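Reopening this one. Same input as before:
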Amino acid sequence: MRTTVDLEPGLLAQLKEQAARERTTVSQLANQLIRMAIATQQNKPGHVPFQWYVAKNSKPADGFDPSDRSYLDDLV
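Same output, byte for byte:
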């Protein structure tokens, strides 16, 4: 599956260098590192699994614009 991810400056270069050292692709390395990071977070004490909450009428809350992704900054 393809997707677009915005990386911090220099991070792609580091990924490419590490992938070359390990003789793997950037995609394979990125998948491996993301999987490891997620597993680490899930194993932390007090971890609560993410859940989606949907309104009963299945419509976004008043004032919520799904095209405005700035709300994702609050999840970090």
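So the earlier flakiness isn't reproducible anymore. For the record, The radius of gyration is 17 Å.
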